[in-house]
TrEMBL record:
Domain NAD-dependent epimerase/dehydratase, first and last residues per copy: 29-196
Record protein name field: NAD(P)-dependent oxidoreductase
Highest taxon of the lineage: Bacteria
One Pfam short name: Epimerase
Coiled-coil ranges per UniProt: none
Lineage, top ranks: Bacteria, Bacillati, Bacillota, Bacilli, Lactobacillales
């Protein structure tokens, strides 16, 4: 059984491809929203890739840091942290103007019933970021939720498909993208828009949620019958590498694994690994929220962690009482209400 330390070490060890790309880096990097589910892993990967290249640049991590533990973890790793509320004008204007920005700030869960704040964070704030960091290269995290539900048998949408978001959360995320696109053209800022769908690791994500459902002898809901997933480390590596393909106009990239995966199939494989009988409720619908990431695969290659590896190590982790994060993806949501 892998320990949490071993897993964290593996998650923060950069691939040769990432090390080779980071060799191009010119200047410090600032990660805005670093304290989220992916930010700490991303910061550590970047720091280690810099060390591999003997680069003396600084990695800054900025967030409100409501959880002091994540800030201490980053500081111990050599990441320079800054506490700031991005919607506070004076706090944001105290941030150093760094050459490379990875923007991970967003608001999703709780968006229904808190729509004004959702729009402020997801659509208004990006404009302030674009103005303040107009001379920087920016990777802007977005979501595959900007696409509509599509017929499973017709193929997932690539970047050539026009967005058609369902619900106010997804609409506000398209607003974020449009703001970055506008200022990329207006100011010549080089931008990559990072449409992610869905990142997972042992402690959270689609596979972990399904495994916990099975272990609890609860039925797996098949209403959203198909998904895309990508291992968190692979997604973080691609986010860093997106710095080097940023452009003006903005470069839009879908980021996920290569397969359209059946929720039934994932659950059955998990049942085998967990030695549990799987129960199902509902029926697979003809449509699902999917993304075609062939453009990013052409640039970066396929993600290195396969779905069968994700299934096996997630089952192993949970069977040995591995810790989890109580932040469900709500991947089953079909009406855009988060």
């Amino acid at each position: 059984m892998r320990t949490l330390v071993e897993i964290e070490q593996g998650m923060s060890t950069p691939s040769p491809e990432l090390v080779a790309d980071v060799k191009q880096l010119a200047g410090d990097v600032m990660i805005l929203g670093v304290s989220g589910k992916m930010g700490v892993t991303l910061a550590k990967l970047l720091k280690n890739a810099m060390i591999e290249n003997n680069l003396d640049y600084q990695v800054y991590g900025v967030a409100r840091f409501s959880d002091p533990a994540s800030r201490a973890e980053l500081e111990d790793y050599g990441i320079q942290t800054i506490a700031a509320d991005f919607l506070n004008q004076s706090e944001m204007e105290q941030l150093p103007k760094i050459k490379n920005i990875i923007f991970m700030v967003g608001y999703k869960f709780g968006a229904t019933g808190n729509e004004p704040y959702t729009w402020a964070v997801n659509s208004y704030l990006p404009g302030r970021i674009c103005e303040y960091f107009k001379e920087s290269r920016i990777v802007a995290f977005s979501t595959g939720c900007v696409y509509p539900l599509v017929p499973v048998n017709a193929g997932a949408p690539s970047e050539e498909m026009a967005p058609d978001p369902l619900g106010e959360y997804a609409q506000s995320c398209l607003g974020r993208e449009r703001i970055f696109e506008h200022f990329s053209k207006e100011n010549g800022t080089k931008v990559s828009i990072f449409r992610l769908n869905y990142a997972i690791d042992l402690k959270y994500g689609v596979v972990s949620e399904l495994a916990k459902t099975i272990l609890a002898d609860e039925a797996v809901d098949l209403t959203m019958g198909h998904v895309n997933v990508i291992w968190q480390k692979d997604a973080c590596e691609q986010a860093i590498r997106c710095l080097f393909v940023a452009s003006s106009p903005a470069n839009i990239l879908n980021i996920t694994g290569p397969e359209t995966l059946s929720v039934r199939w994932i659950s059955e494989r998990l049942g085998e690994s967990l030695n549990k009988e799987v129960q199902f409720i509902g029926t697979e619908q003809e449509t699902a929220l999917l993304s075609n990431a062939s453009k990013s695969h052409e640039l970066f290659g396929y993600p290195q962690t396969t779905i069968r590896e994700m299934i096996d190590i997630t089952a192993e982790w949970l069977l040995n009482d591995g810790a989890t994060i109580d932040k469900p993806t709500h991947f089953q949501e079909r009406k855009g209400k988060y």
